[in-house]
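Second attempt. The first submission of Phospholipid transport system substrate-binding protein had a stray character pasted in from the spreadsheet, which I only caught after the job came back as garbage. Lesson logged: always re-copy from the clean sequence file. Corrected sequence (212 aa) follows.
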Amino acid sequence: MRSPVLPRLAVALALLLPLPLAAAPAASQQAAAATSPRQVIDTLDQALLDVMKNADSLGFQGRYQKLAPVLDQVFNLPLMARISVGPDWASLKPDQQQKIVDVFRRFSITTYAARFAGYNGEKFESAAATSVTGGDQVVATKLVMANGGAVALNYRLRANGPSWQIIDVYLNGTISQLANYRSDFGATLRSGGGDGLVKMIESKIVELTPKK
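This time the job returned cleanly.
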């Protein structure tokens, strides 16, 4: 079975990714009521370990199918799409906004399914949640390699009704996923509009999807 290495997983986590913008897919409504921020992260970590351990037997499509309902549950993907676009979001038509939400969701799931494609004794370690401004919570996590190396992560979560969902990921504890996206997406949106942004994200999905 293929073994992920530290740089590969770092890229995966950097690529991955606050008020719902549209109705989330049905699976995202299955989040348990009053789930704590730490439990949300544990749910994600367990799902990632499962697909890593069974990566070859599942294949890309199997990993995608297993991860999709979990990511819908633990991430507020519509909100993350909106924040990734930034202030220009308000200038988009409702149908364009929905297309961006949809393609952003598929991009996020594809990224995880493509990158978490092997296992070599890795494990996740998470700390207790801490409160930050605005009522959000942050859970610090490390993906620890068998050789002792580690990828440090901070997950920022926000209450969404009775549940908590991830709204940003900070690689190495400080690098915001959404800030990276905003820089990338903003330039494309200004030059190509909403349709151009959808095409750009679609191209990223194609690049990540294994060729048969």
